[in-house]
Amino acid sequence: MKRAPLVALIIALPAAGWGECPTKEEASLIITRITKTPTAVVEVKPVEAFCACQARTEEGETYFISKSRRYLIEGILVKVPQVKISKEDYEKLRKRALFTMGTGEPLLVLTNPLCRACTENREKLAELSKRFKLYFIPVGFEGEEFKAAVDAYCTSKRGEEFFSAPEEFKLCDSGKLRVWSVADTLKRYGITATPAFVFPNGRVLVGVGELLKEVKTEGGAS
Description:
Elements: E1 9-12, H1 24-35, E2 41-47, E3 52-57, E4 62-66, E5 71-74, H2 87-94, E6 99-101, E7 105-111, H3 116-120, H4 122-128, E8 132-138, H5 143-155, H6 173-187, E9 196-198, E10 204-206, H7 208-218
Parallel strand pairs: 7-8
Antiparallel strand pairs: 1-5, 2-3, 3-4, 4-5, 6-8, 7-9, 9-10
Helix pairs in contact: 5-6
């Protein structure tokens, strides 16, 4: 039987509280109970990134069973590709930087004065400036964040004052055009949240946590 190329079936099973892959016999029983068809599993192997186990049957069908035995997924897993922007768009974004900080390898920081994660990790971002030349690029996609990004351009906010919100935003036309330009570029790559970080090779990481994990384990871009 031909299977859909993506996840096709998700069914809850009784919780068992286990953390290891089922045996071939266990997997056969689970699949048989759900499909109502006698099924023989010939191989079971872990899929660590998904916290599940892949089960292959004699007929060549593929299932994924959660290690808790609570879920059965029929189909195949598709790895989400790494977001990567073009050289042209990288340069376009870099030229929109309001200010820079530090020395070293360039790192674009697409953020917003109202970015809570950035404010909470201000010291860690300052530490990064010892390894990277940070290009701070204001961006906001809607509401107050859009106004805050425009205000940053209009008032030329720099350094420590960048992550502060005024009582009233200054919304100049040139600032609006810059924020719209940056936002439109990011939306083409499916990026609609801040902070986002872009390495010189175009690779994008979204979120302070992802960036800190990356530079800690790899020491920068690959």
